Amino acid sequence: MSNTESHTDIIIAGGGMVGAALACALAEQGFSIALLERREPTEDWPQDSHDIRVSAISRASQNIFSRLQAWPGMVRRRVTPYEQMCVWESSGAEIHFHAADIGEPDLGHIIENRIIQIALWEQLRALDNIDIHCPASISGLDLDENAPRVVLNNGTQLSTSLVVAADGARSSLRELAGISTGGWGYDQTAVVCTVRAEKGNQATCWQRFMTHGPLALLPMDDDLFSIVWSTTPEQAQELTEMPAGDFDEALTRASEERLGRLELQGERGAFPLRLQHAKQYIKPGLALVGDAAHVIHPLAGQGVNLGLLDMAELTDVLVRARGKGHPLGSLHTLRLYERARKGENIAMQGSMDLFKRVFSNDLPPLKIIRNLGMGVTERLLPVKNLLIRNAMGTLGDVPSLARSFHE
Ligand SMILES: Cc1cc2nc3c(=O)[nH]c(=O)nc-3n(C[C@H](O)[C@H](O)[C@H](O)COP(=O)(O)OP(=O)(O)OC[C@H]3O[C@@H](n4cnc5c(N)ncnc54)[C@H](O)[C@@H]3O)c2cc1C
């Protein structure tokens, strides 16, 4: 297709986890969609390999995937439920969360990012009101409340009622729209990889807070964990470059041997960490979702979960606007989305930032407060239960797609 002009109700740029879920949701609501993605996801990985990028998926996100009928495709490939969470720091303070305490079968699932994406693409490829442009890159954006337009590098021109940027932290659509971001680098890098644990995974997520940053061990398969080790850029470089045997030693020591000896399986990756928030989520004819709008510290594994709540909220707002005959791209419509999501995302981003600061500090008064805080929380079941429900994303007024099936 070249230089032709076609019109769809909504253009979504980015078919990652958030953009692909949004395309499925809106197409299932009867909107016509153009989905633009740079790289086509393909399931060409060896059966016994594991993606080093994984996500801790909350119950709210699981509900979204289930309602989009993508959940069975994920389960068929590989999802790992976890029933417990253990958070500790070297001083001895420790806190445990159990699914059984709140009458749930699990607290969430660990899923490889490539599995989430491919299962969503399987769904969206089956919907005939989605035009997929892939590989596509965007060379121009003309924002207009009534008729925004996007131009692709191959000259294709697309007109629409609303453009959604789901093209990740370095969103080029956000840049083309002139929306700036605020934030800062954490001076931390996350080292990620898969490891085998001598004591098996025990269906438990483990997280140890250390001065340079948290070490998270997320269970996968029987005795495998995906690790996210946030530390200084210098130590991260050492950890990714040292021989595998030395890495095993360092990791086993950092985990205080809670899982026995840990052994690297395959490659290591490193991701510099930053906090980033778009100054605005909307402009006439444009909305930002997912990492294009906000990037948070991975210590509580909430990034994609927040992005999925964005897409679920935007779906509700657009369905309501259509029902009332309001234009999809008007500021009047889009403000409802921004109002519902921006405050929530800033609150989560702020609490993760505070956590990161409080736990990466060896000042004695802070250590005492941390120990007291963890000790008290460990003994107060109602507070613990509230924390768990909050992390599961099912507290409060959640968008329709994310609601529990019992409501
Ligand atoms: C180390 C680490 C661990 C994490 N762990 C967790 C976790 O446990 N739980 C959790 O919830 N979150 C976690 N996150 C965060 C999570 O990975 C992100 O929030 C999530 O990937 C954002 O999804 P997205 O779809 O918004 O963006 P992305 O995943 O970045 O997807 C963007 C898509 O847009 C495409 N694209 C980009 N530019 C263009 C363009 N110009 N045109 C067309 N397409 C384009 C890309 O190819 C990609 O497919 C973690 C992050 C890190 C760094």
From TrEMBL:
InterPro entries: FAD-bd (IPR002938), FAD/NAD-bd_sf (IPR036188), Ubi_Hdrlase_CS (IPR018168), UbiH/COQ6 (IPR010971), UbiH/COQ6_monooxygenase (IPR051205). GO terms for cellular component: ubiquinone biosynthesis complex. Pathway: Cofactor biosynthesis; ubiquinone biosynthesis. The keyword Flavoprotein applies. One of its GO terms (molecular function) is monooxygenase activity. PROSITE patterns: UBIH. It comes from the Bacteria. Keywords: FAD, Flavoprotein, Monooxygenase, Oxidoreductase. Pfam families: FAD_binding_3. Residues 8-320 form the FAD-binding domain. Its cofactor is FAD. GO terms for biological process: ubiquinone biosynthetic process. The keyword Oxidoreductase applies. Component of the Ubi complex metabolon, which regroups five ubiquinone biosynthesis proteins (UbiE, UbiF, UbiG, UbiH and UbiI) and two accessory factors (UbiK and the lipid-binding protein UbiJ). Belongs to the UbiH/COQ6 family. This is 2-octaprenyl-3-methyl-6-methoxy-1,4-benzoquinol hydroxylase.
